[in-house]
């Protein structure tokens, strides 16, 4: 654990994180969806002086939700690699800077170059569009990219980095896109938080089990392509399935 005493929570290098932590209330575009980052920040900030590995994961979640909340409320729009998956990559990168890296500038370069290379493989071999492949193509791909970037920053070999990317997408295969009311808020914001946590876990798994892999990244990308081809259009950004048809947000939330 590095830089615990230099936590830059709310600095201006990650504007969405800083902006989200200053805001409370409801997200404007959707009827009644409350912001949660301000609450999360309040809850975990007291832990900062004595936080260990697990509480630091709370910050990871918080970073992802922050970026997505700012995105969803019409603030800074982050595309990484898509707007729906805006929080995963920034969250993992900030987590590295705040909690892991001794050389932040180098880590930023390593992370972004590695993540971009993995993203290109998905773009060429399958898709990064939810309209073509559902949420596996958005949060799933972002998770894979971030997992690879995290592993690279931890000094993993190229083979292990690719395996981190593979684990990152493998457990998102088949993930559908079903935003309520067609807005990138529910389940999207929370899903980015889980995507970030899953990315770090995927990288840690790949580094822990070096040499005993059974699925390659190429095989996982091809599986994603085939899954996307089989997926009904109802699960591809149309809001005609899943949570988009079962959840009535204005009725499920208390009056504000
Ligand atoms: S559910 Fe759909 S809109 Fe929401 S993040 Fe996933 S792909 Fe994007």
TrEMBL record:
Question: Does the keyword 4Fe-4S feature in the UniProt annotation?
Answer: yes
The UniProt keywords, alphabetically, are:
4Fe-4S, Gluconeogenesis, Iron, Iron-sulfur, Lyase, Metal-binding
Domain Serine dehydratase-like alpha subunit residue range list = 40-244
Output the InterPro entries linked to this UniProt entry.
Fe-S_L-Ser (IPR051318), Ser_deHydtase-like_asu (IPR005130)
**Source organism's superkingdom?**
Eukaryota
Give a GO biological-process term: gluconeogenesis
Write one Gene Ontology MF term: 4 iron, 4 sulfur cluster binding
- Identification of the protein by name: Serine dehydratase-like alpha subunit domain-containing protein
């Amino acid at each position: 654990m590095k830089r615990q005493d230099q936590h830059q929570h709310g600095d201006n290098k990650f504007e969405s994180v800083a902006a989200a932590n200053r805001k409370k209330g409801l997200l404007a575009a959707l009827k009644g969806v409350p912001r949660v980052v301000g609450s999360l920040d309040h809850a975990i900030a007291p832990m900062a002086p004595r936080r260990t590995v697990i509480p630091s994961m709370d910050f990871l979640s918080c970073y992802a939700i922050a970026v997505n909340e700012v995105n969803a409320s019409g603030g800074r729009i982050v595309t990484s690699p898509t707007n729906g998956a805006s929080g995963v990559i920034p969250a993992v990168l900030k987590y590295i800077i705040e909690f892991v890296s001794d050389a932040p500038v180098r880590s930023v370069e390593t992370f972004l170059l590695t993540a971009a290379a993995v993203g290109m493989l998905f773009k060429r071999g399958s898709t990064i569009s939810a309209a073509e492949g559902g949420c596996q193509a958005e949060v799933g791909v972002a998770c894979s990219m971030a997992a690879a970037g995290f592993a690279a920053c931890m000094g993993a070999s190229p083979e292990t980095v690719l395996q981190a990317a593979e684990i990152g997408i493998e457990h998102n295969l088949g993930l559908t896109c079903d935003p309520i009311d067609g807005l990138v808020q529910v389940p999207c914001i929370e899903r980015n938080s889980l995507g970030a946590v899953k990315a770090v876990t995927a990288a840690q798994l790949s580094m822990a089990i070096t040499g005993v892999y059974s699925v390659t990244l190429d095989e996982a990308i091809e599986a994603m392509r085939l899954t996307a081809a089989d997926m009904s259009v109802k699960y591809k950004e149309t809001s005609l399935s899943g949570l988009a048809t079962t959840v009535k947000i204005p009725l499920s939330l208390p009056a504000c």
